[in-house]
Amino acid sequence: MAGNLNGKIAAVTGASSGIGEATALALAAAGAAVAVGARRADRLEALVDRIEDEGGTALALPADIGDEDAARSFVSDAHERLGGLDILVNNAGVMLLGPVDGADTGEWRRMIDVNVLGLLYCTHAALPLMRERGGGHIVNISSVAGRHAAAGAAVYNFTKFGVTGFSEALRQEALHSNIRVTAIEPAYVETELQGHNENPVVQQAIAKMRDQIGEPLVSEDIADAILYAVTRPPHVSVNELLIRPTRQR
After folding, report:
1. In sequence order, what are the residues at sequence separation of 6 or more whose Cβ sits closer than 8 angstroms to the Cβ of residue 2?
2. CB 91 within 8 A of CB 141
3. Which pTM was predicted?
4. Residue 115 gets which letter from DSSP?
5. Which one-letter DSSP state was computed for residue 6?
6. How many angstroms separate the Cα of 236 from the Cα of each of 56, 181, 230?
7. What pLDDT sits at residue 2?
8. Residues facing 59 on adjacent strands
9. Neighbours of 104 (CB within 10 A)
10. Sequence ranges of the domains in the chain
11. Which of 20, 106, 185, 198 could form a disulfide with 91, with the two C-beta atoms 3.0–4.6 Å apart?
12. Which of 115, 114, 170, 108 shows the shortest CA–CA distance to 142?
């Protein structure tokens, strides 16, 4: 699909690894100028170097999007320094699993700050910029956990059900501004996300799931799906994509 996004400008959160990194590379390879955001500035700079070495255009904008001012600055700086904004990929996320009873409530706040509020802040900042430009595309990374709840994932489910519901409501609001909205719902993807969990019981459950699946998804699989959605003709809106490894129940 190289060249489908020539002249387009994209911003990707959570771009220092995993799905965000793969998405930034895919969008840049397709011709978009890409602003990449995350907390780890060194990783972002390495990503920008890689994109530029491959002939693309990229800009590193370190930010913790769980902070409202930082999230808004990320979007406005991408718009100002790259000359517009056509695509926003709200990818930044945290997955901290465990039972509700006895949980560390600080972990709840971190998931809500990043998975929900960070996504909202970036979206709120991007909407008027896209409207003034005549349209755009917002891609929200939800999860299979935004469709199916499970014991031990209650608060993570809470955040991802919210992302999925928000995406559909936003789609209905934003279509009048020619802004498309897509919710991407990956199941098990081999990324750093699983490593966020230090609880040995949770680690054991994740390892068991990984063994049952056999061959998991990789970040590039999800980046391909995002690229597919954002390169459809203007009259085509891909609203949801649920993507599982073939052997995941």
Report:
1. 29, 30, 31
2. yes
3. 0.93
4. I
5. T
6. 27, 11, 10
7. 45
8. 35
9. 11
10. 9-243
11. 20
12. 115
CATH fold for domain 9-243: Rossmann fold (3.40.50)
Instruction: Name the least confident of 76-85, 144-153, 189-198.
Output: 189-198
CA distance 47 to 91: 16
Residue with tokens 């990449």: 36
Residue 135 CB neighbours (<10 A): 14
Find out whether 209 and 184 touch, Cβ atoms under 8 Å: no
Q: Answer yes or no: is pLDDT of 241 > 70.
A: yes
Residue keyed to tokens 């700050």: 113
Characterize 48-64 residue by residue with b for buried, 16 or more Cβ atoms within 10 angstroms of its Cβ, and e for exposed. beebeeeebebbbbbbb
Burial grade of 163 (CB within 10 A; 0-12, 13-18, 19 or more): buried
Compute the average pLDDT of residues 104-114. 96
> Per-residue DSSP letters for 148-205?
---TT-HHHHHHHHHHHHHHHHHHHHHGGGTEEEEEEEE-SB-SGGGGG---HHHHHH
Tell me the percentage of the chain whose pLDDT exceeds 90: 86
Write the DSSP string, 50-71: HHHHTT-EEEE----TTSHHHH
- Asked if 188 is an active-site residue, the reply is no
Length of the chain: 249
Angle, CA of 172, 88 and 15, to the nearest 5°: 140
**Could you say which of 121, 156, 188, 228 is catalytic?**
156
- In one-letter notation, the amino acid at residue 212 is Q
- C-alpha dihedral (97, 101, 107, 109), degrees to nearest 10: 120
Task: Give the distance, in angstroms, between the CA of residue 229 and the centroid of all CA atoms in the same chain.
Answer: 13
